Amino acid sequence: MTRAQGLRPAFLLVLLGAVLLVLCLLSIALGARGIPLDQVLRALAGHPDSRLVDNVVWTVRVPRTALGVTAGAALGLAGALMQALTRNPLADPGVLGVSAGAAFAIVFSVAVLGLGSLLGYIWFAFAGAFAAGVLVFLLGRMGRSGLTPVKLALAGIAMTSLLTSLTSAIVLTAPDALNRYRFWSAGSLADQGSETVLRVLPFVVAGALLAMACAPALNSLALGDDVAASLGRRLGLVRLQGVAAVTLLTGATVSVIGPVVFLGLVIPHAARALAQRAGIGPDHRWLLPLSAVLAPCLLLAADIAGRMVARPVEIQAGVLIAFLGGPFFIAMVRRRKLAEV
Amino acid sequence: MVRTSGETRAGDTAAVPARRHFRLAVPPVSGVLRPRLVAVCAALLAATFLVFCWGVSMGDVPIGLTAVMKALAGQGDPGTLLVVRELRLPRALVGLLAGVAFAVSGALFQTMTRNPLASPDMIGLTEGAGTAVVAGIVLGWDAGIGVQALGLTGALATALLVYLLAWRRGTTGYRIILVGIGLSWICTSATDFLVARGGRFQAQAALGWLVGNLNGRSFEDAIPLAVAVAVLVPATLVLGRLLRTLQLGDDVAAALGTRVQAVRLGLMLTGVGLVAFATAAAGPIAFVALAAPQIAQRLAGAAHPPPVASALTGALVVLGGDLAARTIIPGTELPVGVVTGVLGAPVLLWLLIRVNRAGSGG
C-alpha cells in the first residue's frame, strides 16, 4: 500500500496522457502508406518534407486521430457516468440502447425526413439518445424487485434490438444508403474531415464539463439514494444533469462514428482498477478524467490495429472493440458481486 | 378408449386451472388430448397451408391459388408445373422448414431453462452458426453440405461455450442469457470482420444472407434442412416427453428413472442441430425462435410452449413474414428477417416486462 500511494493520481493522469500522445503520433504515422516519425514531427511543426506528406498528415491522418481522441473521450466519460448514475457495472451507451436510439434517429431523419446536414443529424441524435435512454431506464425499473443491473441490461438489449431492426428496415428500403450505413454503423474513424471534428467538439466539451460538475454528487450517490439525499444532494437534479451529459456525449459521437459498443463498458472498470492501484479509491473526480484519457487510448489502438491487421482492407475500430468487449462483458456477468445474476 | 377427465396435473395448473381435457389411453398411444390445443393446431395448419400456397402463387407470373394447389398435387400445364415446382417451391419449403426448426428449438430451450428469454437467437447460437457460415462463404467453401456442416459446428461450439461460461456451481437463466448475448456480440464482430475482409462479391453474398433471407433458395438449400427436420423434430418430441419429468427437478426425475444428464444433453444437441440447419439454409431469421413458442403457448393456453403448435406457428410466422416482406413496398424485396425483427422486438420487450413482473426470470 505504501508503494502504491507514492503514485499520485495527477502523475497517473500525466502518464496516461503521454501514452495517448504516443498513440496519436503512431496513428498519424501508420496507415496505407507509412510516414517516418521524424517526417511526421516536421510536418506537424510546419516544415514538411514534401507537399504529399503535408497533405496526408493534415487532411487525412490528423482529423482521423483528432476524431478518435474526441469520440473516445466522449464514450469513456459517457460510460463512466452511466455506470455511476445507475450504479450498474453493465451500463454503457451501447448496451443500454442509447447509441441505438441516436443511430435510429439519424437514419430516420436522413431517409424519411430527407435531412442532409450533419448539424441536423446531431439534434436528432440527441433526441434519439435521450428518448431511448429514458425508456430503457423506465423499462428496467418495472416489476417487483425494482432496478437491478441485470434487468436494466436486458431492457437495454431489447431496446437495442428493436431499434436496430427498425433501422435496418429503413436502410434496406433505400439501397443506395446501405453501403454508407454499413460502414458508419460498424464504428469507423476513417474518411472524416477536420470540419467534422470541429462541429462535434463543442458538444463533447459541453458534455464533459457537465459530467465533471456531477462528479462530487456521484460520489455521494454511490452510497445509495438515501445517504446521498441526507448529504444534501438533490437527486433529481443530479440525474437530470447526468442524463443531459450522457445525451450530449453519446449523441455527438454516434452522429459521426456510429454506435460503438463496449468502449464505455470496459474503460470505467479499467479506470477503477488503476485508481485503486494509485490509492485513490472510487473517487469520481479522478475516475471521470481517467476514463476520458484511457478510452481514446483504446479507441486509437483499435483503429491503428484495424488499419494494420487485414491489409489492404481496414477493420473498423468499433468491430475490434466489440471483439475485445464481448469477453469482458462475459467476465463481468460471471462476477459474483452481481448478486442478481 | 377416451374419457374426459377434470383432474389437474402439476404442469398444467399454472396457466390453465382445471380445464376439461381428454386422456387417451389406447396403448401404445397414450397422453392427454386437450381440445383447445387440437383446435389451435388445426387452425394453424390450415393457415400455414394457405399462406404457403399464397407465397407460391406470387411472383413475376401470378398463378391463381387453385392452380397452385393443383400444381402441388401434380396437375396442370407443364409451364405452371415448372414454375411452381422448380422455381417457387424451394423458397416456400425453406421458409416452412426454417420456421419449424427455429420454433421447435426455441420451445425446447425455453422449456428446458424455464425462461422465455433463453431462446437460441438470444443466447448466440444463431450468430455462432452465422459466423461459421459467413466464414465458409468468404473463405470459399460455399454451397452444399459444407455450409450445413459449418453452421452445425458454429452453433455447437457456441452452445458449448455458453454452457461452460455460464457455469458457476450450476447455471441460472439470466446468466446464460447475458453470457449468450456477450458471445453473440463477439460472433457478430467476427462476422463483420470476415465481411470486411472478403471480396466484394463474397461480401454481398454474405450480407444478403445475414439478414435472414429466402430470396433465390433452391432445393440444394431445402433438402439438407428437410432431412434435419425429419430426423430432429421427432427426436425432440420423444425426448420432450422425458422433459416433463425433468421439470420436477433433477433429483425427482432421477428417482423416477430418467437419465437426467443424458436426456438434457440429447435435447441440447437436437435443439442446436435444428438452429444450425435452419440458419445455414435461410440465414439467422430474427426472433422466430423467441416469439413463435410464446405465441403458440398463449394460443393454446398452455403452461409451457407446446412443440407441435410452436412448429406450426414458426412456419406461419416465417411464411407470413416473407409474404409481407414481398408485398409491403411494391418493387422492393425486403429480406424476411427485417419483418420478423421489427415485429419480434416488441414481443421481446413485452416478454421482458412480463418476466420482470412475475419475478420468474431469475
TrEMBL record, chain A:
It is a multi-pass membrane protein. One of its GO terms (molecular function) is transmembrane transporter activity. The chain crosses the membrane at residues 65-82, 94-115, 121-140, 152-174, 200-222, 243-266, 286-305, 317-334. One of its GO terms (cellular component) is plasma membrane. One of its GO terms (biological process) is siderophore-iron import into cell. The keyword Transmembrane helix applies. Keywords: Cell membrane, Membrane, Transmembrane, Transmembrane helix, Transport. It is found in: Cell membrane. Belongs to the binding-protein-dependent transport system permease family. FecCD subfamily. PANTHER family: FE(3+) DICITRATE TRANSPORT SYSTEM PERMEASE PROTEIN FECC-RELATED, FERRIC ENTEROBACTIN TRANSPORT SYSTEM PERMEASE PROTEIN. This is Iron complex transport system permease protein.
From TrEMBL, chain B:
Gene3D superfamilies: ABC transporter involved in vitamin B12 uptake, BtuC. Signal peptide: none annotated. The chain crosses the membrane at residues 37-57, 92-110, 122-141, 147-166, 173-191, 222-244, 265-287, 307-325, 334-353. Keywords: Cell membrane, Membrane, Transmembrane, Transmembrane helix, Transport. PANTHER family: FERRIC ENTEROBACTIN TRANSPORT SYSTEM PERMEASE PROTEIN, FERRIC ENTEROBACTIN TRANSPORT SYSTEM PERMEASE PROTEIN FEPG. It is a multi-pass membrane protein. Pfam families: FecCD. It comes from Sphaerisporangium siamense. The keyword Iron does not apply. This is Iron complex transport system permease protein. Its main location: membrane. One of its GO terms (cellular component) is plasma membrane. Belongs to the binding-protein-dependent transport system permease family. FecCD subfamily. One of its GO terms (molecular function) is transmembrane transporter activity.
